Amino acid sequence: MKYKLVVSFLLALLVAVPVVAQQDTTLADTSAAAMLPAPATMVQAKDADNDHGHAIDVTWELSADDGQGAGTVLSYEIYRSESPDGPFEQRGLVPSQKNSYTDIGSRDRESPDYFPDYIDFYYRVDAVAADSADRALSEVFGPVHSYGQWFNTGRIPVMVGVLIFAILTILFVTIAKKGRELYVRPLAGIDAVDDAIGRATEMGKPILYVLGLGTADQIATIASFTILGRVAKRVAEYHTKVIVPCYDPIVMTVAQEIVKSAYLDAGRPDEYSDDIVYFVTQSQFAYVAAVNGTMLRELPATNIYMGKFYAESLILAETGAVAGSIQISGTDEIAQIPFFIVACDYTLIGEELYAASAYLGREPVLLGSLKAQDYAKAAIIVLAIVGIVAANFGWTYFTELFQVVD
Amino acid sequence: MRRQLPLALVFIFGVFMIVQYFVPHEYSEWVYEFLLDWITIIGIFALALGIYSLTHVSMGKIRNRTPNWQYAIVTMLGLFVMIYFGFTARTGDSWGLYFVALVALTLGISSLTWGAVETQASRRKIGFAAGLGLLAVFVLVAVFDPSWKFYFYTSEGLQSAMFRNFFDYIMIPIQSTMFSLLAFFIASAAYRAFRARNILATLLLASALIVMLRFNPFLGPVGEYIAQTANWLLNVPNLAAKRAIVIGIGLGIVATALKVILGIERGYMGRG
């Protein structure tokens, strides 16, 4: 009897333990299923547009539990692999309610984050709950590879604008070359240059020409070079002295060549010396201190500031005013224009700096480009008015025509 | 050829830069970065020319005893001492004969310079002899003093105590002083600008007053109206004028760039 009881008990145990164990597993599975969020769906990946390659855009539909449903999704983790079966490497993390990610890597082969082009990748997006172990894996999408584009379609409006403007410029330059008289409105600041040189000659004092803090590759500095050439030529003709302290050594080298050529053109090569154009320093306020010192020691009859200026503009111009010099300035730095207007006698505002060289030279080909600028400005005014009307009537396609996407 | 080659180079690289703006491919970026590297390389060589120019002008002032020539000595000392500090550093905590070497080198170069600019033969001889002797002292100290050494290829010198101290406690305060002058110059410029000489100047004065008063906390309920008016002034007439100037500048930049690329504008080559 005892044996029967023991055997029965053991048999019961043999049957019951797997059942209980099975029940426990089922309960655990049911509990886990209840905690897991719904996965992200419709995962898509494609090469990022208008770039140099090494980047893939990944998009997906939000999880049903993101902001609605159970509301348990806190973030999405983006994984990438070279095989659909893995292993997957995490590439990014975005918060909930966001359904896109650009997987960007380095183009440097030596970099640990190197992202090779033309290699097939597979992407997966995990919807992750508060406990990062609670995650729902999306379907794997792929293959997809990145590659660089040869044309940035987002910049088509810029290209069209530049082409139209280039055609206008060439057209007006051609018209000007044929000898047609082009009217250019007087620029008081440029008309004053001749008077200022004459004043310096009469007073026997030098002219100080400041090229600003710009580098030689900036258009404002290039425009200033041209004006310097004209000023130096007249200075040489009048046997007056010009001082050109430079902030940038490349600018100094170019300016030396320009002044030397101007003296040569004026038939006074013997009066040129390398001490006319000299380098001071590449430290902004040390440069200001040096130029201010020159102003107060040499007391120039005229100070000409043309080019790129920053915080030093007012310090220079006010010191020049204290020194009693006639001051002519021109810059395309919007923030500095008011300072120059207040402290200088004449100021070339913005584009007038670029027009000055053409105005000084009175060469038809240079004046032709000014006409092109005027027509381009007229076109912009018309487009702005049409744009205002279009925006008020809700015709968004008109403004979208001019949208530049980087 | 002397004129044609630069113009051809400007045209080729100018057109490349325009095309490059529309081509995002990495080959295009690579060439662009390569060209930018060249600007850095040219800049470094040009810096040597700049230092030569500064030295040449300063030495000329000293030699010719032009008015205020003493400032040129200070300029030269500043240039020389900072270069010296930038290339040297202590190897431990001891200064050793570091300052002896500095004084010997400074006086040695000064004596040689004096000898070079002097016109009397006897003084020239004294200058050169003293200069060479002091330089010999400097070389001896530099070779046999282990407490400091030269760092030509690494940046230890730039991190050295003397370089950092001169930069942090002399250069930066002086620069800050220059910058702070701006506050006083703004006041003096504003005084001149805001005179009610005519209708336009009066309008400017009134606008400036409104804009300045917008942050005044003692105006009570009136302050809110002033703030609103100031914001309107800044966001409507001011912004409109600014944008007009920006559009003009943009067109001017494109026009000038085109003129340079097409060889119409040659002022930068010394031929206006």
Characterization of the model:
- The complex is a heterodimer of chains A (406) and B (272).
- Chain A is an alpha/beta fold.
- Chain A folds into two domains: 104 residues, Immunoglobulin-like (Sandwich); 181 residues, 3-Layer(aba) Sandwich (Rossmann fold).
- Chain A is 46% helix and 19% strand.
- Chain A is built from eleven helices and 14 strands.
- A six-stranded parallel β-sheet of chain A has the order 11-10-9-12-13-14, with helices on both faces. In chain A, strands 3, 4, 6, 7 and 8 form a five-stranded antiparallel β-sheet that branches.
- In chain A, strand 9, helix 4 and strand 10 form a beta-alpha-beta unit.
- The radius of gyration of chain A is 36 Å and the shape is elongated.
- The N and C termini of chain A lie far apart (90 Å).
- The relative contact order of chain A is 0.10.
- About 4% of the residues of chain A have low confidence.
- With 272 residues, chain B is mainly alpha-helical.
- Chain B has three domains: 67 residues; 124 residues, no CATH class; 76 residues.
- Chain B contains eight helices and two strands, in the order H-H-H-E-H-H-E-H-H-H.
- In chain B, strands 1-2 form a two-stranded antiparallel ribbon.
- In chain B, helix 2 crosses helix 3 and helix 4 packs antiparallel against helix 5.
- Classes of the chains: A alpha/beta (406), B mainly alpha (272).
